[in-house]
Every structure is written in structure tokens, then in C-alpha cells.
Design a protein that fits this description.
heterodimer, A: 260 residues, alpha+beta, five-stranded antiparallel beta sheet, 8 strands, 22% strand, globular, B: 140 residues, six-stranded antiparallel beta sheet, two-stranded antiparallel sheet, 4 helices
Chain lengths: 260, 140
């Protein structure tokens, strides 16, 4: 068994959660990889521990993975590429699983049953990650809100939690990290399972943004009309997360959603 | 009858799950359509009882529970006036929406807000602006 410890970055948290999620989703074709992720936090900073274990002991064993998690990925696509590689590697092994008892594989105490449980842990990682973001003055409140939202959907609709998008949450976090002086938004879930942040101080100052898993955003803006400030301009649009504030710059949105 | 326009002076309610509510504020996400939904499901309150709002809400909770809703601790039943909803959307973005009766065997008060799509977040936010009463979904 190999243990790798790396200083946590958002990408590491996401990757850890995503691997768990991807592999759990893939249980129809089951993999023989056992991942355990343990977030810890302390003065020395949050850490992600990833343990890659050898496959279940029969009928053959495979030493499948050796994960290296740099503290910061140069490109956002890299973590996903790694997941794809892992999955491809796993699929190659499927041939050697023939004859395995699938029911056994999905028992709660098997690696595969545990992977099912890990679907939820990807959010737990992000909740811890948000709570420890020093640059966000409302990190604790936001973390609590995300935790609360996940609890709410689990309580109200047992099927919905599976549709709540971890990538949408990642994008919301990245956006808030990029603009740490923004006011604390209200945060909701859309029927699609995406996170929606809203800044609204009056019917004339309303900016609501749904963060899509792809990195795009779907926004609604109510703001004083540029030429007739006594009227309200209302618009909606889809744009990349990176261009969002530039797209609405003419309406001085940043002035009224930024901490005074 | 199915497809009838509800009287403009009447009211409809929308069950707003707790993930669409924060600090007692109902977000437009509560009024967004899901994929493949043709209309927003609401309940015609005057169909449940003539005028007693408390009785309407009480009966509505039973109807929702009967349909399998797990009424959340933080969920809200939002009440909207039919005319205000239609008028607000028409006046602000010049779009016509309709509030039509869509009775179901186990829910005769069931109705729908028609005329917008899953992409129309702006209209969902406008509808949210017309909420004029909020009641806890779960009886306290």
C-alpha cells in the first residue's frame, strides 16, 4: 500500500472527489481499485491523503495505480485527463474480472461498495476546502450553506443528491476565489443540480448566476438602465465564467456586489 | 375544467424546496422548469377552499403529502396572485404566460404556469418577485 500526501489545492480536492465519483459511477463495469480519501485540517493546512491499494485478492491481483498529485495543476484539464487515464486503465482490466461475483463486489464492505459511499465524500472535501479558504471573508458561512443545501436535498428528495453537480460547485468556488472582494452571495440549487449565486440588494440591483459544470454561466441581471437610470434593464445571457463580470461591466455590477 | 384559465383574482401556491430558499427569501430557482417539464406545477388555492387561507394551506399540505412530497423543514409554500404573475411578466419583458387548471385525480387543485421554458431564468426570477405570502411547508 502506498500513501501519498500532498498539500491540498482545489484541484486535488476535486480530483480526489472526481475519481471517487467516476469510479463509483462506473460500478456497472467495476474496477478493482480501492481509494480512500481522508481530508484533515490543521494549522499546517488542509491535506488530502490518497491511499491506493492493491486490488481485491482474487482471482488475480493488480497493482493498478500510482497517483501523483501536484499541489497545483498547470491546466484545468489535466486532472480530468488523469481520471480518464485511470478509467481506461481500469477498463483494460475488466477482461480479467470475468468470473468474479458482481454481487460480492458491490457489498458495502468491499472496495466497490465503499466507492459508492465515496460519491458523497467529494462534496465533503469541498466543504472542508471552502471552510479553509483564507481569502474569502465568508468562507465559513459559504461552507455551512453548501453543507446545508446538501442536507436539504437529501432530506427532501433522496434521488436529487445524485444530480447535484460537484463541478458546478467547483466553478462557483473558483469564481469566488478569483474575485475575493465580492460580497457574500445567497446560494441556491437549480432544478438541474447546479449552484446558483445571487447578489440582490433591490429589485434594480439583481445579479444571479448559475454555474454550469462546463465552466459556463447562465446569468440574470436587473440593473439601472444605462441611459435612463430611472428604468430597469433586465437581461439574461450565457457566458464563460472567466468573461462573466466583463460581460456585465457596462452596468457597473461589480460596484454593487463588492464589499464596501 | 382542464385547460381553463384561473380567475385573475385567485391565487396559486408553489412548493419551494429548501434548496431554493435562504433566510426566508425564495429564489427564482424555485420557479425554473426541470428538463422536459412543459409548465410549472402549482396549486389553485381557491379550489381547495373558498377564502380561508389557513384552511387552504392546511389542505394543500395534505395534498402534497398524499402525492409523496417530503415536506422539508426549510421548505416554503409560496403564494402568488394569478393576475400579478401574468401582469408582472407581461409588463417587464412583454411575454405572455398563462395560469391554467391541470387537475389530477388525486389533486383537483393542480394547475400550471405555461408560456416559458427551462432556459427562461429571467422569467423565473420575475415570478419569484411576485411572491406575496410565504408559509412553512411543514406544519409548525
Amino acid at each position: 500500500m502506498e500513501v501519498h500526501r500532498e498539500k491540498a489545492s482545489l484541484e486535488n480536492y476535486i480530483l480526489a472527489g472526481r475519481i471517487a465519483s467516476e469510479l463509483a459511477v462506473d460500478t456497472a463495469s467495476t474496477t478493482d481499485v480501492d481509494f480512500l480519501f481522508e481530508p484533515t485540517s490543521g494549522k499546517e493546512g488542509s491535506m488530502v491523503t490518497i491511499i491506493s491499494a492493491k486490488a481485491a485478492p482474487q482471482p488475480t491481483t493488480h497493482e493498478v495505480l500510482h497517483l501523483e498529485l501536484p499541489s497545483r495543476y498547470p491546466k484545468r484539464s489535466d486532472p480530468f485527463r488523469r481520471v480518464v487515464n485511470i478509467l481506461e486503465e481500469s477498463r483494460k482490466l475488466e477482461e480479467s474480472w470475468k468470473g468474479w461475483d458482481r454481487e460480492y463486489l458491490l457489498q458495502p464492505d468491499t472496495p466497490f461498495g465503499q466507492l459508492e459511499k465515496l460519491r458523497k465524500t467529494q462534496f465533503q472535501y469541498l466543504i472542508v476546502f471552502i471552510r479553509n479558504l483564507p481569502e474569502l471573508p465568508f468562507s465559513k458561512e459559504l461552507s455551512a450553506r453548501v453543507e446545508s443545501l446538501l442536507g436539504i436535498v437529501e432530506e427532501e428528495d433522496p434521488e436529487l443528491p445524485e444530480t447535484v453537480s460537484v463541478d458546478s460547485l467547483r466553478n462557483l468556488i473558483e469564481f469566488l476565489q478569483e474575485y475575493p472582494t465580492l460580497d457574500e452571495p445567497s446560494v441556491f440549487l437549480t432544478p438541474s443540480g447546479n449552484f446558483r449565486a445571487k447578489w440582490r440588494s433591490s429589485p434594480q440591483n439583481h445579479f444571479a448566476v448559475e454555474f454550469l459544470p462546463s465552466g459556463s454561466t447562465h446569468y440574470v441581471l436587473f440593473a439601472p438602465d444605462l441611459k435612463h437610470p430611472d428604468r430597469v434593464a433586465r437581461m439574461t445571457g450565457t457566458t464563460s465564467m472567466d468573461s462573466l463580470l466583463e460581460s456585465v461591466e457596462a452596468y457597473h455590477v461589480q460596484d454593487w456586489i463588492t464589499q464596501q | 375544467m382542464k385547460g381553463d384559465q384561473l380567475p385573475e383574482s385567485d391565487h396559486v401556491s408553489r412548493y419551494c424546496g429548501g434548496s431554493h430558499v435562504q433566510d426566508d427569501e425564495v429564489d427564482g430557482s424555485a420557479f425554473m422548469l426541470r428538463e422536459k417539464e412543459e409548465y410549472l406545477s402549482v396549486n389553485w388555492l381557491e379550489c381547495l377552499h373558498n377564502s380561508d387561507r389557513n384552511r387552504q394551506i392546511h389542505d394543500l399540505r395534505r395534498v402534497l403529502e398524499g402525492k409523496g412530497f417530503s415536506l422539508g423543514k426549510t421548505a416554503i409554500i409560496a403564494v402568488l396572485n394569478v393576475d400579478e404573475v401574468i401582469d408582472h411578466v407581461q409588463q417587464t419583458v412583454n411575454r405572455t404566460i398563462d395560469v391554467l387548471h391541470e387537475p389530477e385525480p388525486e389533486d383537483p387543485s393542480h394547475s400550471g404556469v405555461f408560456g416559458y421554458t427551462v432556459e427562461d431564468h429571467l422569467i423565473a426570477d420575475l415570478i419569484a418577485e411576485t411572491v406575496n405570502e410565504k408559509h412553512p411547508a411543514r406544519e409548525r
